[in-house]
Amino acid sequence: MARKVTARRVWVSTAAAWLFGFLIFLPILWMVLTSFKTELEAFSMPPKFLLFHWTTENYATVQERSDYFHHAVNSLLIAGGSTLIAMIIAIPAAWSMAFAPTRRTKDILLWMLSTKMMPSVGVLLPIYLIYRDFGLLDRRAGLVMILCLGNLPIVIWMLFTYFKEIPKDILEAARMDGATIGRELVYVLTPMAIPGLASTLLLNFILAWNEAFWTLNLSTSDAAPLTVFIASYSSPEGLFWAKLSAASTLAIAPIIILGWFTQRQLVRGLTFGAVK
Amino acid sequence: MATQQTQVLGRALLTPAVALLFIWMIVPLAMTIYFSTLHYSLLDSEAWSFVGLENFRYFLTDPAFLTALRNTLVLVGSVLAITILLGTPLALLLDQQVVGRSIIRLMVIAPFFVMPTVSALVWKNLLMHPVSGLFAWVATLVGTTPIDWFNDVPLFSVILIVAWQWLPFATLILLTALQSQDEEQKEAAEMDGASALSTFIYLTLPHLARPITVVILIETIFLLTVFAEIFVTTGGGPGLATTNIAFLIYTQALVQYDVGNASAGGLVAVVIANIVAFFLVRIVGRNLEA
Amino acid sequence: MGQITLQGVRKSFGPVNIIKDANLDIENGSFVVFVGPSGCGKTTLLRLIAGLEDVTGGQILIDGRNVVGVPPAKRGLSMVFQSYALYPHMSVRGNIAFGLKMAGLPRSDIDRKVEAAAATLNLTPYLDRKPRELSGGQRQRVAIGRAIVREPKAFLFDEPLSNLDAALRVQMRMEVAKLQKQLATTAIYVTHDQVEAMTMADKIVVLNAGNIEQYGSPLELYERPANLFVAGFIGSPKMNFVPGEVAGEPSVATLGVRPEHLKIGKEGEGWPGTVSVAEHLGSDTFLYVDAGKLGLLTARCIGEFNFKAGDRIWLSPDPARLHRFDKDGVVIRT
């Protein structure tokens, strides 16, 4: 693996890579910096990079004025709830397809994938009308349901690819050792699949947290998660950049940190195993 | 593991997921198809009538549809071009020996985790604002007039935002693919006297063909229905300048409450997405055999 | 006790018949090896006995009881897998104990039995390690330990030594055979390696394309192969086959003679040929001889013979060790 590379080449690549990386990260960095400025300094021209009056008052104001935590709790409940329910439905399904495949397993997998490709906008109206008639508009339960169904194919697929990597022999060995299917799942499969289960959970939590089609269309206030809360800043009233930045930083910080842990699994989750 | 007991159990465990997904797919789709044949407005829900394919004729010949279709194609095409043309060199760069690679990786991947409403608003206000945005300041530094992004080049502005969100995805997939390239194969090429450039052209590019296809297909699926970024920045305007098909359908459905027309549009979107999905499913399916 | 009987066992996957009517009687305490080329159905047959696959037809009796439809766990057999199939998240102790734990044995019994099995296999110092911290040979021992600790009616081995290097393979081969004799438990052992089969087995089952070609002791198979397939499969280097007509026996379709039963004769005696390759091993000399119409013959001569490529030689087969086959490949007994 260790190929010989000249020191000069390493430095050139390093400089270029850092420059690229910095430019890509700049909008996020700038947002975080702005969140610590006063509204006046947030607008100042030329912009102030580090030498400004650092303040955390925006973070306090965001909570006071707009009930940030209400929406954060909504995000947590909706993303967490939909992911957990999806996992509960998906684990048995993925087990079945990975370890008791039939001739139709491949077709079922591909069909599940194709449901994920249906554009949400194509079914916006029926869903909206069903939700209206059943009183699910602006209800957390309604969002949990739709995000759960929307992400179910990805959850099943990810789990399926992880389960596939567990050698069948080991499960058969457990069976020879006298384990029932239930004990096989508890003592052998689950402990071996924990890394896969964790990254599936994490990635789908992230996807649900950031989902911004159904949340924008099906919730307004009571059930609104952070995506909708942030969107409410799009109609500007007075000086709001610093507060927008503070609210945004709060909304994305936990997810970026979680996301950094899942970056490897991200590829396989989003490409349905087509790239590993 | 093909004993009958496991088969039966397997079927039982698979059923809930299949049933749920089936209902989730079929019920709304059937309703959309049904609505698309009606003259039906939520504003006057008493008066509705069957109109056959009238809605499709109306939707497809509406000049707004053609504009939206063009905007959709431009948006998808430009974002694909930007993410792949920038993502490939970036992935190649990150595949080199670089000091602090893991930190750079983190910085590059970060935009993907930013929720669409946040990235759209941060770009619109903090970066692209014609007076106080960071870009305006850079423009004055180099001595040009700042661009009024969302008035002068509205669609391009949306494209920039969306491309920024998807660049990490393309880069990460291409990087993963590069790292799976056989090191010995490259060394064999080196022994054969291949230059770095010909190694790239004859070994690396063919190796990347598949992941690039996957990137194109998956991004297309998502980019066809870009919504939140338009919703919070331009609202489809000015005029129809940034209205794509998804946004047009949304307007007809939840702004004008025209059920029939919006459903016809929704079906058009489903058909377009299915064309792309067909190719993606085939690629993934081929991989399943292996 | 561990007497296993197969009666008309069949297995097909869709239209493909993997096992066609297998009948077999395995005595209690014997070491039986299933051998055959890859794809012959030997592993499938083992998995049918284990209960990991359902039979399409026929009966499998263990100690007289038909076990078709009985789940693997209830058949009282244990299995050593080719990949070892150790539980990666459990220690060696946990791996060996798992079956006993599933059977609901009291803690103290489990500990005692695990310690005893570990002592037998020289695994005591490694009991608290994870499988990934062990060498290939040690993992192999753990897999065997997991099998013996349950005191099963029979052991099933699925090519257990194929992942080991050559030297270790020879050593483990002897250890497994010794252990089986010591425990006096029935063992069924699948391998594609005929040397393993010859050295370990009390009885060998030769399988080809889903059929049992012959069932007998190693020497029986060597001395009295029932057909061309067994004759060609057992023995190394492979038996030479020459057309009967060319060899002067027109009543016989094929004449077979093992390389070690070809003697170097005097000039004009036996079959003439030209040495194309000579391999000098010191203890033996292998000669690959182009014998014209007779085809390419292999001769194995004990000791060192100073031949080189291009030398003319005469080979004479030991008349008592000739094998004659009819046109269907079945042996002609006289």
Automatic annotation (TrEMBL), chain A:
Membrane protein topology class: Multi-pass membrane protein
PROSITE patterns for this protein: ABC_TM1
Protein keywords: Cell membrane, Membrane, Transmembrane, Transmembrane helix, Transport
InterPro entries: BP-dep_ABC_trans_perm, MetI-like, MetI-like_sf
Top-rank lineage group of the source organism: Bacteria
Family (UniProt): Belongs to the binding-protein-dependent transport system permease family.
Protein name: Sugar ABC transporter permease
Organism, as annotated: Bradyrhizobium valentinum
From TrEMBL, chain B:
Subcellular location, principal: membrane
Any Pfam family hit: BPD_transp_1
Keyword Nucleotide-binding applies: no
Keywords, sorted A to Z: Cell membrane, Membrane, Transmembrane, Transmembrane helix, Transport
ABC transmembrane type-1 domain: residues covered: 69-280
Residues passing through the membrane, by range: 12-35, 73-94, 106-123, 155-176, 239-257, 263-284
Family classification: Belongs to the binding-protein-dependent transport system permease family.
Entry's localization field: Cell membrane
Designated name of the protein: Sugar ABC transporter permease
An annotated GO BP: transmembrane transport
Topology relative to the membrane: Multi-pass membrane protein
Organism, as annotated: Bradyrhizobium valentinum
Record GO cellular component, one term: plasma membrane
From TrEMBL, chain C:
Subcellular location: Cell inner membrane
Membrane topology (UniProt): Peripheral membrane protein
GO molecular function, one term: ATP binding
Location of the ABC transporter domain: 4-234
PROSITE patterns to which the protein is assigned, alphabetical: ABC_TRANSPORTER_1, ABC_TRANSPORTER_2
Main location: membrane
Keyword Transport found: yes
Highest taxon listed in the record's lineage: Bacteria
Protein name (Swiss-Prot/TrEMBL): Sugar ABC transporter ATP-binding protein
Species for this entry: Bradyrhizobium valentinum
